[in-house]
Amino acid sequence: MASAAISKVVWVNGPIVVGAGPAGLSVAACLKARGVPSVVLDRADCVASLWQRRTYDRLRLHLPRHFCELPGMPFPDDYPEYPTKRQFVDYLEAYAAQSGVEPRFNQAVTSARYDKAAGLWRVCAEDVSATSTASAGDEDVVTEYIGRWLVVATGENAERIVPDFEGMDEFAGPVSHVSEYKSGEAYRGKRVLVVGCGNSGMEVCLDLCDHNALPAMVVRDSKVHVLPREMLGVATFSVAVFLLRFLPQWLVDRILVLLARVFLGDLEKIGIRRPSRGPLELKNSRGRTPVLDIGALARIRSGDIEVVPGIKRFFRGGAELVDGRRVAADAVIMATGYHSNVPQWLKGNDFFTQEGYPRVPFPDGWKGESGLYSAGFTRRGLSGVSSDAVKVAQDIAMAWEQQTSSR
Ligand SMILES: Cc1cc2nc3c(=O)[nH]c(=O)nc-3n(C[C@H](O)[C@H](O)[C@H](O)COP(=O)(O)OP(=O)(O)OC[C@H]3O[C@@H](n4cnc5c(N)ncnc54)[C@H](O)[C@@H]3O)c2cc1C
């Protein structure tokens, strides 16, 4: 059994930032621009591991590029309106290099607590690199980082959600999470049950069609908001942002639903019903992102993607649905989302809820007490990440300046 005794202690002169995704990188970059050093820790072996390791090949940014830029560095001019995953990763790597942010990789944070007596954060991280575990035998190599500030930037998508269905063990084919999916090549000619109808579920179905697989998409409760990605060449997201300047959210929601009806037609006919709460309301309160259609609806209408209701149980060759129908499947892909992992490692603190989100809602959830901060938990994608990063860095820089000038 591996032990977890602290084998090294590192004093951090500046904030400890946990997570080297867009949020952690932008906090560290904004701090650096203000002359504040930081230490960025990530359990992965690269920056933006979600994008590099856990997303499919055909992924592009869902929103127009100017909503996805990080503070202080625009996208290169030759990038398209919706950059590809590779382009976004290149951008993030260039961002880290240009800002001089060098994360410490393979550092999985297992606990963080505030030491009241010392007025300092104690953050324990296990070295999860293959070389470390091989050379250290049974002993985990644990480093304790000690510093005045802690920035939580581990993201809303830290861990996979894999629902436990009755009879799952009986199913004979492979079951995977969408974070493992790269392309439909491996599924050519196969019947694939895709569980979940968010942006990932829809896009994976589209990709499966393009690789001559036969996808059936499970739409639990048959309810999801689908909006066109663009209307007459204008991004739907831009329209929503523009309208929100003048109108309340509930009214913008109604307008969006109406426009979706005009541009996409009646989706009930193809088995997709709209939730009673509006798309922006659901996004902001529950984190349920509306689907921005990039072609899946057309494939549903043509019959290439079958829409089926929720799953009751699995059997050897497929699944029984809540309406009593049986659907045959050779493989199952769970496009069932992710959850935050903060409660697993941030101890003795009630700034975060049990679900791992700041208790105080947007726009005030970026600052806790005793030098605790969060970045990237606003349910507002990369624009939320950027706005948090700027505020967090500004606040810490002020405290840093006071501290250094009083010294
Ligand atoms: C498929 C997909 C597409 C998206 N497309 C868009 C889009 O087009 N536009 C948009 O605005 N938003 C988009 N988002 C939402 C969001 O902007 C991204 O998820 C973005 O990557 C969030 O950045 P982050 O830094 O907060 O989290 P992440 O990118 O998830 O980074 C968190 C980092 O923390 C690390 N970490 C986690 N736990 C620990 C730990 N215990 N110890 C050490 N390190 C840890 C992880 O390894 C990871 O590198 C998308 C999300 C997904 C899943």
UniProtKB/TrEMBL annotation:
GO terms for molecular function: flavin adenine dinucleotide binding; indole-3-pyruvate monooxygenase activity; N,N-dimethylaniline monooxygenase activity; NADP binding. Belongs to the FMO family. It comes from Eleusine coracana subsp. coracana. One of its GO terms (biological process) is auxin biosynthetic process. Keywords: FAD, Flavoprotein, Monooxygenase, NADP, Oxidoreductase. It catalyses: indole-3-pyruvate + NADPH + O2 + H(+) = (indol-3-yl)acetate + CO2 + NADP(+) + H2O. The gene is gb26197. Signal peptide: none annotated. This is Flavin-containing monooxygenase. Its EC number is 1.-.-.-.
